[in-house]
Design goal:
This protein is α/β, with parallel strands linked by helices. The protein is 38% helix and 17% strand. The chain has helices at residues 15-26, 38-52, 63-69, 79-89, 125-132, 148-151, 168-178, 195-212, and strands at residues 7-10, 31-35, 58-62, 72-75, 98-101, 138-141, 159-165, 184-188. It starts with 6 loop residues before the first strand and ends in a 17-residue tail after the last helix. The relative contact order is 0.14. Bound molecules: NADP nicotinamide-adenine-dinucleotide phosphate.
C-alpha cells in the first residue's frame, strides 16, 4: 500500500533522486521532486511521468516549497552542498518531519577520488545532517548503497538497504518505503552513528564498479526472516 504522505526528494533532479522517484512513482507513491530551481524540478517531474504515465503522482517544486508540502523528506545532494542547503531549508522543514539522508561524503566533493570518503567531524554526512535540522526532526540514513544507474532502469534491484536512525519509528517508516522498491529488502541497521559504515561501503562499491565495470550492491545474509520484513 502506498504511504498516504507525499515524499519530497530534496536535490531530486540528480540520478539518485530521479531513480528513487521513478521507483516510488511506479508503485503509486506521491513524489515531489525538489530543486534549487522550480522550473528544473518541474521538468524532472515531467521526465518521470513520461516513464510512469500521466496518472502518476509526481510534481516538482523549489526545495523549500517541497519541505513545506511534505513531512517525509529524502535528501540526495552532493556532500559539498549538504550543510548549506540544510541551513537554508531549516525554517521550511516542518516540525516532526522525517529526513532520510542518502548523502555520501565522497572525497570527490573536494577534488579527490570517488572511491574514498572524507572524514566528517560528526562521524558521517547523516550525523552532520542531524545537527542541522530543526529540533524534533528525525534523521535516518538509508539508500547509500543503491546504484542510481540501476534505480533508473527497469529491472528489480538485487540489493539490501540498511536503515539507521536513533528514532525507531523513523526506521520503521523508512524501511516500509525502501521495501516498495522491487527487489529491495530493508534492514534495521541500528543507530544513526552506523551511517559512517554505510557511507564507507558506498566508496568501496564505487571502487568495485570501476575495477569490475559493474553496478555492485550488497546483500546481508544469515539474519532471521523477520529482519528482512
Ligand atoms: N549516484 C548514485 O549512484 C548514488 C547512490 C547512492 C547515494 N548517492 C548519494 O546521493 C547524493 C546525490 O547523488 P547524485 O548522483 O544524484 O548527485 P548529483 O547529481 O551531483 O546532485 C543531485 C542534485 O543535487 C542538487 N545539487 C547539486 N549541487 C548542489 C549544491 N551545492 N547545493 C544544493 N543542491 C545541489 C542538484 O539539483 P538542482 O541543481 O536541481 O538543485 C543535483 O541535481 C550524493 O550525496 C551521492 O553521494 C548517490
Amino acid at each position: 500500500m502506498p504511504d498516504p504522505r507525499p515524499i519530497a526528494i530534496l536535490g531530486g533532479t540528480g540520478p539518485a533522486g530521479m531513480g528513487l522517484a521513478l521507483r516510488w512513482a511506479r508503485v503509486g507513491e506521491t513524489v515531489i521532486l525538489g530543486s534549487r530551481d522550480a522550473q528544473r524540478a518541474k521538468e524532472a517531474a515531467e521526465k518521470i511521468k513520461q516513464k510512469t504515465g500521466s496518472e502518476s503522482r509526481v510534481s516538482g517544486m523549489e526545495n523549500s516549497a517541497a519541505c513545506a508540502a511534505a513531512d517525509l523528506l529524502v535528501l540526495t545532494v552532493p556532500f559539498e552542498g549538504q550543510a548549506a542547503l540544510l541551513k537554508q531549508l531549516k525554517p521550511a522543514i516542518r516540525a516532526g518531519s522525517i529526513l532520510i539522508d542518502a548523502t555520501v561524503a565522497l572525497a570527490a566533493s573536494v577534488g579527490g577520488r570517488a572511491s574514498r570518503t572524507l572524514g566528517v567531524w560528526q562521524g558521517s554526512a547523516a550525523q552532520q545532517a542531524a545537527e542541522l535540522v530543526p529540533k524534533g526532526v528525525s534523521v535516518v540514513a538509508a539508500f547509500h548503497n543503491l546504484s542510481a544507474e540501476l534505480l533508473n532502469g527497469d529491472e528489480d534491484l538485487d540489493c539490501d538497504v540498511i536503515v539507521c536512525s536513533d528514532d525507531a519509528n523513523a526506521i520503521h517508516v523508512c524501511r516500509a518505503l525502501a521495501a516498495r522498491i522491487p527487489g529491495v529488502r530493508a534492514i534495521d541497521g541500528g543507530k544513526l552513528e552506523n551511517a559512517r559504515v554505510l557511507e564507507q561501503i558506498t566508496a568501496l562499491l564505487i571502487g568495485l564498479n570501476i575495477r569490475h565495470k559493474g553496478h555492485g550492491g550488497i546483500r546481508i545474509t544469515g539474519l532471521p526472516p523477520e529482519a528482512y520484513r
